[in-house]
Structures are given as C-alpha cells and as structure tokens.
Amino acid sequence: MAGKSSSAEKRHRQSEERRLRNKAVKSSVRTSAKKFVVLAQKKEAENAEAALKDMIKKLDTASRKGIIKKNAASRKKSRMQRLFNSLKAAQ
Q1: What span, in angstroms and rounded, lies between the C-alpha atoms of 25 and 1?
Q2: Cα–Cα distance for residue pair 41/45, rounded to 1 Å
Q3: Residue 44, exposed/middle/buried by CB under 10 A (0-12, 13-18, 19+)?
Q4: Which of 21, 18, 52 is nearest to 35 (CA)?
C-alpha cells in the first residue's frame, strides 16, 4: 500500500474504487460486443441491431468518461457497424 500518511491512504482508497469501477465498465463493453458478434454470426439481424445499439451506447459512455480512448471506441464502433452492414447485405 501507499505511505503512512492519511492523505496517501485516502488516495489509495480512491484509486482502488476508480479501478474497480473502470474494470466493470470495460467488462460490460466487452460483454455487449461479444453478444453482438454471436448474434451476427447466427445471422439474427433484428436482435443483432438491438445489441449493436446497446454496445455503441456503452462505448460512447466509456469514451466520454475517459475509461477507453476516443479513437479506440470509434474504431470498435466502425468495425461492428461494418459487420452489421455485411450481415444486412447478405440477406
């Protein structure tokens, strides 16, 4: 742990809380992306579209809060949208 001063202890507690919160958000983003990919592979366009919207919302939120970088979120959205568009074109 950090030093013995009370301010160092408080800073350590705060960083631990932030780390856990950020970890939960990142995990949520990854889970929603996985759900979308599975639905896209099953060729379920309607459900995949709903999952894509949910994933985009989570990515935007994480990006806005600085949990993931703006360009990383943009790249993931672009790739998933491209996958969805190819799914729609195949039908």
Answers
A1: 25
A2: 10
A3: middle
A4: 52
Token digits for 44?
Answer: 């379920």
Q: Mean pLDDT for each 10-residue chunk of the chain (91 residues)?
A: 82 97 97 97 94 97 96 97 94 79
Unique residue bearing structure tokens 């366009």: 45
Amino acid (1-letter code) at residue 72 = A
Angstrom CA distances, 88 to 22, 59, 70, 79, stand at 33, 22, 27, 14
Query: How far is CA 66 from each of CA 22, 72, 78, 80, 84, rounded to the nearest angstrom?
Result: 9, 11, 19, 21, 26
Q: What residues contact residue 65 under an 8 Å CB cut-off, 6+ apart? A: 25
Q: Which residue has the tokens 């935007």?
A: 60
Q: What is the pTM of this model?
A: 0.86
